[in-house]
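Example 3.2
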Amino acid sequence: MRAAIIRKHGPLDAVSVEDMPEPEPSEHEVVLDVRAAALNHLDIWVREGRPGLEVDMPRIIGTDAAGTIAELGPRVHGMEEGDNVVLYPGLNCGCCEFCIKGEHSKCTRFGIMGVQRDGTFAEKVVVPASNVVPVPDNLDMLDAAALPVAYLTAWRMLFSRAELLPGDTVLIHGIGGGVAIAALQLSVMAGAKAIVTSSSDEKLERAGDLGAAHGINYRTCDDVAAEATQLTGGRGVDVAVDAVGADTWPADLSALRKGGTVVNCGVTAGAEARTNLHQLYWNHLSALGSTLGSKGEFRQFLRYSVYARRPAVWLYPPYHT
């Protein structure tokens, strides 16, 4: 089979497409015939190399995928060859205290496809059978492949961590990034008001088409937090979604209302951020971290995606089980 592989970290030419042996499933695994795969910023970091991100070489890269089950390994039940499925990309031990509670992304041995094991940029990939979920009837393979990392991450940030409610206001930084776009779409579908930021007026305009209530160009705005606060009538935003890191963290805390919540899932602009502790305690703020989501949250999100495309049916996400 053909696969995109890296043998060392580096620029784009570090990736080569090579013939590789076809994978064989072990117990509780399936072989996925990949029909579509999505590119995430994580895949670029894996290729470039980042401190703390350890990758055994050679490595087939890629995290997201949707496809058809080509082969069942021993002791796999409840699915058949030919089933169309989308991949939950997280890897977990299944037996630690967090896995037992269904908090798979908190697993003490948590990993992800394309990092801790060969990834999805291949014609076929072996995955744990418990990591594949049927593709909803209303989605094609291209749609499904784009969902796991970005949309599951945003889902957990908004609903499991920040407990977003209809009518809340959400500040989303760096619109144009995968998680940011997902957070915008999910916020709008949940009945929340989204304020987005970007350095590109074109991206802000596109975000408006997707339902953003307001856009702030941080290149031309002197104070993003003050602008966001003004747009809420001086109250402040209920939730800040941050996949950027150090550059936006101070603005997050300043823009939040009393009792507001900031959720971070990435450090594209740096991991060392300044925190005004007076703002934190005096305003009763919550600062939370989040990574991917659980298998249960992924299934919940996919079920909700069916209803989100049917205007006659409205169910608020956290209560749709």
